[in-house]
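Note to self: the last two entries modelled the partners one at a time, which told us nothing about the interface. This time every component goes in together.
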Amino acid sequence: MEPGARRSCQSFYYQTPVIDLYLSRLPNSLMLAGVAMVFSLLIGIPSGILAAVRVGRFWDSAGKVFALLGLSLPSFWVGLVLILLFSVYLHWLPSSGAGTPLHLIMPAFALGWYFAAAHMRLTRSSMLDVLGSEYIKLARLKGLPEALVIAKHAFKNALIPVLTLAGINLVIMVNVAVVVETVFAWPGIGRLLYEGITFRDFPVVQGVVLLGGAMIVVVNLAIDILYAVIDPRIRLER
Amino acid sequence: MSAPADVITLPSPQSRSARRRAIRLGDIPIVPAAILIIIALVAIFADQLAPHDPEVGKLTARFKPPFWQSGGSTQYLLGTDQLGRDVLSRLIFGARVSMVVGIMAVIVAGVLGTALGILSGYLRGWVDQVIMRITDTWLALPALTFAIFLAAIVGPSMWNIVIILGVTYWTRYARVIRGEVLSLREREFVQLAIVAGCSKWTIMTRHILPNVINSATVLGSLMLGVVIITEATLSFLGVGVPPPQPAWGLMLSDGKQGLMVGYWWLTVFPGCCIMLMVLSANLLGDWLRVKLDPQLRQL
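The predicted structure of the combined assembly is written out below.
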């Protein structure tokens, strides 16, 4: 960026270019989003598979409740209740700030639950689609053990839409973390946005929103291109 | 954002039309419907129900715990906040804020999105191009961040929030409704209406609109939960409903200060209210989706 342009989008409060502020906070945000993503996938995918394999049974219902709660609870409230439980009453985890891995646990959970629910629902429906297809029937007719059918044949193919969603969600997580970062005083982009709002620091607010949009556009493009790489049936043509 | 991607078994066309006719009272999921109705009634009769003024407190009675804890009294059933305001009364009036903002925002988004979706799907050509490119641009911006951005610019007020949420979420309607209209406009009854000499306006309002109302309703019910959470988030961040008013998100943000000292009732009760309302809205929305439109899977 030209020096003039850098100066013109300076933060009123910090007196430094917004892009520098943004980049200095980005690693923290990515770390939080990364941990939350790993958590949401670790919970979402296995429970989604379990729910699809046992449709209508106990685990399916339990998964449904988990997903419904995840989609209905505001993440900042989950955060506040976690602080209340684990910091105020049990004194197990630090309530705010960053630094140690312990600081990551609660924000990552508060942020990740919603996405775990989304991933679980998608895994379940995509597993069900795949399990109904012809080649799964063939694999079963061949006499493969059920575990192998699910792990090798069904799981791999059911995973594609989930990973696509996860890619987009990672960017969304970085941008949606505003409230969670505010609750836990996590020094990320969301916190920067919140400070920008409270200090009426509009260049910062503007910059964070625009860069967030840019990030989503770029990642969407990358995923579209990756599609063509992964699936030879899709070609990028005019 | 994330699609509720539950699998719905698609019934055959015949049974589908049979099911569509057969919405009976007994089918309605009774608990979520009852919760929403109770919240709505509480919102309407807030003036009669609330034991205290929600915006004026007694500073001598700050941070009183709920009545079953030691130090609490039945005068303030769910305790008081940092200004000595009755939490129960604020929750009751907060229901009004959430209901009004939620429903109005969904209506604003729905009207805007449906109108633009029909225009773009029926007229095609440059109108379609313009509307859809705007929609794409809108969808690229993360909804929550965008709403915060707008709210920070126009300043906090309840009606501003309604408009901001409507403006933020109309694109989802526009996309879905346009898709429906694209297939509707090729159907025979539309072609016959053209032959009969109906104007474009008549076709869009009389023939297309009634056929997309179902989808718009389903979308609206699914959107209600998202909108209520977003409103609470904006209020929590201090760019939503302005302070003296009792919004649930605002109460949470006030309660945050008392959290470390163990004033749990300021945090737990408003959160439970939000959860109950959003959960009920989502459950009803899922049910409506299955009932009204089995094809609306990818929302």
